[in-house]
# Entry
Amino acid sequence: MAPRFDLVIVNGTVVTASDISTCCVGIKDGKIKALAYAFDQDELEGVEIIDAEGAYVMPGGVDAHVHLCQDLKTGPHGLGGECADNFDTGSRSAVAGGTTTIITFATQTRAEEDRSLIKVVEAYNARAESTGSYVDYGFHIIIVRNDADILENELPVLIKDWGISSCKLFLTYETQRLTDSQLLDVMFAARKHSITTMIHAENGDMIGWLTDKLEAKGMVAPYYHALSRPPIAEGEATNRAISLATLIQNPILFVHVGSALGAANVRRAQTMGLPVYAETCPQYFNLTWDDLKRFHSPTCFENSKMICSPPPPPDTNDHEDLFVSLQNGTFTIYSSDHCPFRYDHPHGKPSGVLEHTPSMEGENHDCHGEELQDLLLRKNGAFRHVPNGIPGVETRLSLLYTGALQTGRITPQKFVELTSTNPAKLYGLYPKKGALMNLQPGSDADIVIWHPEKSFKPFNLTNSMLHHNVDYTPYEGKEFTNWPRYTILRGKVMWANGELKGKLRDGQYVKRGPNQLKKDSPRMDKDPRRVATWLYE
Ligand code: DUC
Ligand code: ZN
Ligand code: ZN
# Structure
């Protein structure tokens, strides 16, 4: 008789978003088959066994905000650089950090040939298929125009054929931002097709105006990026988007919320019963404005390594405010916003110097290594032209473990909710992902097993330990108190004791369904504020 299981995890402290218990996990055909206090000896005969030694056993991480293979070099007001990771290097980094599913972005642009969302998704998927992936993956679609025909005809195809149930919209960046009226168009279409709208909420005009003022005073060093995007830029934009979503009555998710002001607006909307969700990211709990001036001198271009948008908060008091929002449910999900740019690459962070400085006339714009580093020392850059984004898909879970779980700021269940279960529910993947459910429809056996706390020696991170294709980490030297010991994807051990075990083509594309958190908002269709019921009749 075939064994009941292919793989069994014993002596685990099994954690889900709701429960925690000492038990064993039995896996068969890539699915969770049984959870039990113990299995009979004869059931374990010939079966691969992992001894968790009392450590946490959790659903694999679902990172719902990852940029891979993305065209980010979209002009002076876009993100302005070349994405350093493809599906090979990015997914390798994900699995080494305990993540088993990533949702990446396929980007429409304003170019006529990129009008069709379907063609955009096909092109991005071809990039994923050309390398393969170590983890399961899907796409959000970024929409930067409001063509009625595309929204009407293509959104249903994205849902039906591709299982894409979320789109991202921008309130900043000249090449991406939509006006309020355009936002309403897309939100209205998204509502019709049960698509969740993800909002990049920063006020583009405030940022542009402040950037001009800073430049006029010669304040162009990387540090001033933070001053060009103060918390009120997120405060205004979250408020406005909440108002628009109230009119449309469709769920919105604010991506990468990094300010207490943004979080407070989200909290207020949630208290009113609106389907407003928020994502936050590790950089808002681990970096501050000081990190933008930590290399050598406040004006040093190397500080561009820390530039991301929105920027990290001013100081560590903000971290504490944000931890409260993490703990009390204001933040629905915790993603990496892995947006990788290299430092030693002319189309990475050095774009901030190479491509846009008038004094670069006559210089080699396509250099690497010593020549590039020499240029960065001799020439002034400007934060306006630095690509916005930092890497973090691999460090996401361990940073939250170190900073929030081990310190008692959140429970193990909350950790699972934020990093796996809620992203799976929000983006229509539950309970295939984000759960350890052994009853129909059942969960994929995607699991992360940590090291036992009592035997794990804290260590200081260096970039050489990571598996991405970026030549730095913002967390260089930081102490970590745990790290995923095993990462299991659909029953296959992909990462064990510091070694990559899986294969590049083990990851699969995942189709997603509609938002499964929406039903938590009972007043959603009651239109208590008398906004626009007639629109939906
Ligand atoms: N938005 C993102 O989602 N990632 C990086 C930078 C940005 O503006
Ligand atoms: Zn964004
Ligand atoms: Zn992002």
